[in-house]
Amino acid sequence: MSALIKGETGEWEVIIGLEIHAQVISKAKLFSGAATAFGAEPNTQVSTVDAGFPGMLPVINGYCVEQAVKTGLGINGTVNPHSVFDRKNYFYADLPQGYQISQYQQPIVSGGSVLLDMPDGTTRTIGVTRLHMEQDAGKSLHDQHPSQSYIDLNRSGVALMEIVSEPDMRTAEEAGLYIKKLRSIMRYLGTCDGNMEEGSLRCDCNVSVRKPGGELGTRTETKNVNSVRYVMQAIEYEARRQVEVIEGGGTIKQETRLFDPGKGTTRAMRSKEHAHDYRYFPDPDLLPLEIEPAWIEGLRKGLPELPDERKARYIADYKLTPYDAGVLVAEQETAQFYETVAKGRDPKLASNWVTTELFGVLNRQRKAIQDSPVTAKALGGLIDLVSDGTINGRIAKEVFEAMVETGKEAAAIVEEKGLRQVSDTGAIEKAIAEVMAKNQDKVAEYRSGKEKLLGFFVGQTMKATGGKANPGVVNELLKKMLAP
Ligand code: ADP
Ligand code: MG
Fold first, then answer.
1. Which residue, 119, 370, 393, 462, has most beta carbons within 10 Å?
2. pLDDT for 449-474, tens place per residue?
């Protein structure tokens, strides 16, 4: 995919910056003890703080702060020992306080970066401007009653991390990779489950276009897009729309837009507010957040191995290609599965089996690797049978399919179906002799110089032995027996 889009006046560069709202994994909300579980009955997880009752005071949840700090460290950001919570004032039916508690001038994390794993094996660095903490709003339900809207405050006050990127992305594909990578990092850290269908990860897409090398254009912001595919569609659509507007003599208004998943288009929602419209000011109910540097360092030491480090280890220790290593480390569960399969075995063979055969089955069955019909140990057992010559590579695929269907171990299937590799020269010679007798014309052609026919004979011999012959032995014997 080219980074530039073609318009009537030549090529245009697309500029993308993403704001991600990531729900913090925490049993309690940011400023109250109410529960956060997804899918609860409406308004059953609401404290008086979340409902904006008069006189109720927020108390910060230390665990949420810890989660935000860990995330900041995981994206190579600087954790600020001093940060401030502000009130962002606006009215919304599902925002009972009349303001959102957020961080404005002094966020908990400044700077950072996320590495994109490009399909060609290279990486690209995307800058992160900041990560700040804020509370989520409630939810208006417009589809429960013909003439009324209902309000569910379960989500009100849930802790969010807003992660703002620099305008460093240039294609929809890069935006997709960025979200996936950020999600992968947060899942490794256990700070956000990244579940976009449940709304724990939402994305605002800022898009503008410019002539390559020119000044940055005016951006639009498409709000609350809730799947990676939709983010990519929204960006593609928005970039083309902007090019058409500008080339048609119009100008882009800085505005907030909505994505329509049914049509794959965006439409204007409202003109963009400016920061000063929100009348930000430090929340008088909350003291500035002071974090001990020693505590930050303690959390840094306790961080798990993250995807980038794990990928580097796979490349160094297992000699995998950057692409394969990137695919295997993207989800912790996949990496764990792979490491079990690779242990004491050829790591490349293990990687091939996981990324091609196993992923194929998981895709087909729409299953996560945790629910794989073949366990890591069982797959390892199959690979061992290939490595020690019990079965050949082709039969192994057949055995694998049988493992998927029956849940049996590879060795049992091989015995049951009599699939052991035949390396016995006598049996193979006999099969070759039969194939040659049936194809005398081709034998003559081969002998008069058409050596390409070897492949045909290999195929026929394998077929005659039910695919079980040792391909190396077959090749060797064929060359000998076909020689003029
Ligand atoms: P706001 O609160 O107004 O949305 P933020 O600073 O929170 O502002 O976020 C701005 C987002 O827009 C960032 O992700 C930034 O990278 C992106 N951005 C800024 N300028 C441009 C531009 N010209 N084109 C595309 N994205 C941009
Ligand atoms: Mg914004």
1. 462
2. 898 999 999 999 999 988 888 888 99
Instruction: Give pLDDT, residue 210.
Output: 97
**Would you say the CB of residue 329 lies under 6 angstroms from ligand 1?**
no
Mutate to test the pocket of ligand 1, among 86, 132, 164 (most ligand atoms within 8 A of CB): 164
Separation CA 415–CA 296 (nearest Å): 57
- Crossing angle between the packed helical segments 410-417 and 393-406, to the nearest 10 degrees: 110
Residues in a beta bridge with 43:
none
Assigned CATH class of 425-482:
mainly alpha
Residue 450 vs residues 13, 153, 453, 472, 475: alpha-carbon distances, Å: 54, 78, 6, 21, 16
Protein residue closest via CA to atom 17 of ligand 1: 17
Structure-token pair, residue 406? 């029956």
Calculate ∠ Cα 344-346-351, nearest 5°.
Answer: 110
14 - beta bridge partners?
Answer: 209
Beta bridge partners of residue 12, listed in sequence order: 5
- Phi, psi at residue 127, to the nearest 5°? -75, 145
Ligand 1 atom with the smallest distance to the CA of 206 is: 26
pLDDT tens for 84-102 read: 999 999 999 999 999 999 9
Mean pLDDT value of segment 339-355: 97
The verdict on the CB of residue 127 being under 6 Å from ligand 1 is: no
Q: Where are the domains of the chain?
A: 4-298, 305-417, 425-482
Please, which residues have CB within 8 angstroms of residue 371's CB and are 6 or more apart in sequence? Answer: none
- The answer on pLDDT for 14 being more than 70 is yes
15 in ligand 1 pocket by Cβ < 6 Å?
yes
Taking CA atoms, 364 is separated from 85, 257, 334, 374, 380, in Å, by 47, 36, 17, 14, 21
User: Residue of the nearest CA to atom 13 in ligand 1?
Assistant: 17
Assess whether the C-beta atom of 384 lies below 6 angstroms from ligand 1: no
Looking at residue 420, the DSSP 8-state letter turns out to be -
Q: Give the residue, by CA position, lying nearest to ligand 1 atom 2.
A: 275
Tokens for 169, please give them. Answer: 């992305």
* Eight-class DSSP state of 451: G
What is the whole-number distance in angstroms between the Cα of residue 322 and the centre of ligand 2?
A: 34
Alpha-carbon separation of residue 55 from 40, 97, 116, 285, 472 (angstroms): 27, 11, 47, 10, 82
State the chain's mean pLDDT as an integer: 95
Task: State both tokens at 51.
Answer: 């409902």
How buried is 333 (Cβ within 10 angstroms: 0-12 exposed, 13-18 middle, 19+ buried)? middle
Instruction: State the pTM of this model.
Output: 0.91
Ligand of minimum distance to the alpha carbon of 204: 2
Name the β-bridge partners of 163: 20, 131
Q: How many other β-carbons are positioned within 10 Å of the β-carbon of residue 422?
A: 19
